Amino acid sequence: MKIVETTNELNQPYAPHLVVREFSLAPGKEWSPQTPGWTLIQVDSGTGYWLQGQARVELESGMALLVAGDKAGRVLASCLNGMLLYFFTVMPDRLPGLITQGEQDLLKQAERKEAGLRLVPANNPAAVKLGELCKQPQQVGLRFRLNLLQLMVEIFGGDLNMPVGDQLQTDVKERLRSFLQETPPAGLLEISFEDLARITHCTPRHLSRVFYDVIGMSFREKRAEIRLAMARDLLATSHSKVVDVAFKSGYKSLSLFNRMFTRRFGISPGRWRQKNGGIKGVAEQRKPKARVAVSESRFRGLQ
Fold this sequence. Notes:
By secondary structure, the protein is an alpha+beta fold. It has helices at about 5-10, 100-110, 125-135, 140-155, 170-180, 195-200, 205-215, 220-235, 240-250, 255-265, 270-275, 280-285, and strands spanning about 5, 20-25, 30, 35, 40-45, 50, 55-60, 65-70, 75, 85-90, 115-120, 295, 300.
């Protein structure tokens, strides 16, 4: 599903991911792709520059960029002509059943690196394939989304092929990291803390400290984060009633779900769905829209 963007749409707080989006950048104007996760951009036509700190990289038609969402970089269109850009985002925290916790950590570590940017020349096979996907007439369905994700992994390179490690290691942290490397985040909803303690061969009390050191939050907080992420995606992409979303996300009480969701996002589930469009917004995105030149210098992504 290709979406021709306007300024307001690019400012939506809940940005779609694994969806090809298209917009034109007016001559001399800038765009900062500040979305969470990673953004894969291709220059379809026109010329410009990628600006980041003191760096200034020339961009030409067919070139692709893989950008970490929190980097203060921006695309600047040449003053002589505008640019037509395609892009899509990959947000690892929205793929809890597909990407393991260890792989999520690798991607987050890469985001924190100084560059957070990978350039792909126009003649690179990955850039050519990206251009073909962006111009594909039918951009819906699981296969298309998997093709986008596979392309991002190919451009990212071998960093995601880090070995899991020796499961016979005696260090508790390494055993926990090994387990998380093999287990999708959603898998943490299917295991008790006591079972995890047995897997890592330590006491629950010791594991509690180790888990916080490795993940940065408690086991309970991590499970709540996963459930709320699942709930938010269901609210945005399904027709399910709020009570059904609560149950599908693992909450046995609607009132508890409402309280936890409001505490985390500062708004009730129902109002969040209204504000972010829900399934109605997804349907409206499929309607053709006139291409609009971007006139703002910056856009804000999901906080």
